[in-house]
Amino acid sequence: MFDFENFLKQIVEMDVSDIHLRVDEVPVVRKNGIIIKTNVEPLTKADMDVLVEDILPLQMKNKIDSIYNYDFLYELPNVARFRVNYAKNLQNPMLVMRIIPYKIPSFEEKKIPTVLQRVCKVNNGIIFVTGPTGCGKSTTLSVMLEYINENFSKHIITLEDPIEFLYKNNKSIFSQRQIGLDTEDYPTGIKFSLRQDPDIILIGEIRDRKTAKEALSAAETGHLVFTTLHTSDAVQTVNRIVNFFEPYERDLVRGQLAEVLRATIAQKLLPKKDNMGRVPAFEILIATPTIKDYIAKDELEQIYTLIKEGKYSDMITLNMYLANLVRDKLISQEVAMEASENKNELSQIFKGTYHTSNAKKNLAH
């Protein structure tokens, strides 16, 4: 039979990010963004049935025949925690596991710009960390929350589905609540968290109008809210939140968002030039009074102009950040071009025909 625990121990030592387990296929892992087949024997239906029975939460075991998708947390003590998605592939069980280390990394270890430390010092409002699945949003949030934990006395409530990083109380105290186990859903969790004396609320993800409404309300009432969205840049983040609402509500929501927004942090994970791991690329928007005014007036394209002109040193576009990474020889020019949302502009930066003061700055260190 498949020695699952020994397999996980070896895989975690390889510093992979994800594990794929399917019937009649060899286990597959993702390392540095690349899918790699292991040299383990293909898993049988019996292997997968035993594995699912062993790791599925107790409350779901009697429902195994009726569930098609389910997210849960599995822990192998002294090795790692794993965010697990159970699904079916050709009517057979399938597992995809994201490795969550016990140790929360630092800003330096993950090459996260120190400007985000200043973002951590605000006392209220809402901060979005955005990007595609697997880009490191959860890690960036954990680094920011751990920085707060080490430096400030706060009560931090996390609402997650499932809980990923575990925090040890330092200067701050944490209350970690899992959707479906500790609270009914995100909107309910946010509503009742306001009665639990929080300073900071982490919302794992905003997926719908009700969650967006409660998140904005929490930010309006003097709390600092961290949350995530699957958007690629600052403008898309604002539009996504506004578009959760009905057309007749959007002007009001736009004004509400303009009041409470503190920052949006969009990120991507890119392969390093030396093929030794990946490095994050960021687009950082700080909500200055001018930017708040543009959001309220629905003149979002003007925001890019402000950042590109280099008027605010704490902000940087993705293209500027990519150019910095290429200049520092952390990624190749080809990788930067592929990651860019505006390839013509980035090409001009590389050719030296696009001039901006921020493009010459390196906010990564």
Structure notes:
This protein has 14 helices and 13 strands. With 365 residues, it is an alpha/beta fold. Strands 9-8-10-11-7-12-13 form a seven-stranded mixed sheet, with helices on both faces. A six-stranded antiparallel sheet has the order 3-2-1-6-5-4. The chain starts with a helix and ends in a 14-residue tail after the last helix. Residues 357-365 have low confidence and may be disordered.
Q: What's the arrangement of secondary structure elements?
A:
Blueprint (H helix, E strand, L loop, with lengths): L3 H10 L4 E5 L5 E4 L2 E4 L7 H11 L2 H4 L8 E7 L3 E10 L2 E9 L14 H5 L5 E6 L6 H15 L3 E6 L12 E6 L7 H8 L6 E4 L5 H12 L3 E6 L4 H10 L6 H11 E11 L6 E9 L2 H8 L4 H8 L9 H10 L5 H7 L3 H9 L14
Helix pairs in contact: 6-7, 8-9, 9-10, 12-13, 12-14, 13-14
Distance between the termini: 48 Å
Approximate strand percentage: 15-25%
The profile of the biggest β sheet is: 7 strands, mixed
**Uncertain spans:** 357-365
Please report the total strand number as a whole number: 13
What is the percent of helical residues?
A: 25-40%
Strand order across the largest sheet: 9-8-10-11-7-12-13
Radius of gyration over all CA atoms, rounded? 22 Å
Secondary-structure-based class equals: alpha/beta
Number of helices: 14
Overall spatial form: globular
Q: Return the average pLDDT rounded to an integer.
A: 91
Order of helices and strands: HEEEHHEEEHEHEEHEHEHHEEHHHHH
